[in-house]
Amino acid sequence: MKAFIFDLDGVITDSAEYHYLAWKALGEDLGIPFDREFNETLKGVSRTESLERILRLGGRENDFSVEEKGRLATKKNEHYVSLISNITSADILPGIEVFLSDLKEAGYKVGMASASKNAQMVTHQLGLLDAFDHIVDAATVTDSKPHPEVFLKAAAALQVEPKDCVGIEDAVAGIEAIHAAGMFAVGIGDPEVLTEAELVFTDTSILTLDHVLARI
Length: 216
Fold this sequence. Notes:
Layout: E1 3-6, H1 16-29, H2 36-39, H3 47-57, H4 66-84, H5 96-105, E2 109-113, H6 119-126, E3 134-136, H7 149-158, E4 165-169, H8 172-180, E5 184-188, E6 199-201, H9 209-215
Helix pairs in contact: 1-4
Catalytic activity: beta-D-glucose 1-phosphate = beta-D-glucose 6-phosphate
Pfam families: Hydrolase (PF00702)
Keywords: Carbohydrate metabolism, Isomerase, Magnesium, Metal-binding, Phosphoprotein
């Protein structure tokens, strides 16, 4: 393996809670309440597709024009950005800084493949921009996860063949995208949910280079 490519939300920092709060507020405005269980289906999914899923949940998928849906997605994002404006390095998930440092010292290339259009901003606020050789976010891809485009673009930017990359994700859609790209998949979360990953860590505190390489 020559490169490690990370998702952002739920792997580097847990901004998933802020996404949930912002989507929930929009849903309530539209008269479409939903719970955390439904919110799990939005993990790793693009903003546009997340909105479509919420509208389908409420039977309102045909109530808005493309332009109106765009404004709804923008409203959600503005709320989300306001919620994450105070994120700092203290919000980096346990063990991630050490893991990123170990990868750099060992000579691996490090990339990010995020479904968030705010990936650059969040990474900057975390103080981790220098830890990544390249960041690909939702603003630079056509197809969202589980399509492999974001991971393939990251591998190309790092000048590494996909088969020589490890992808790290916390969402089922992300694991599917990693496999579709032809990469080795590492999951962060519940092994009973991320069943397709070759290797699953229940949380980032036990994610280490030695543990990953031992399995590969």
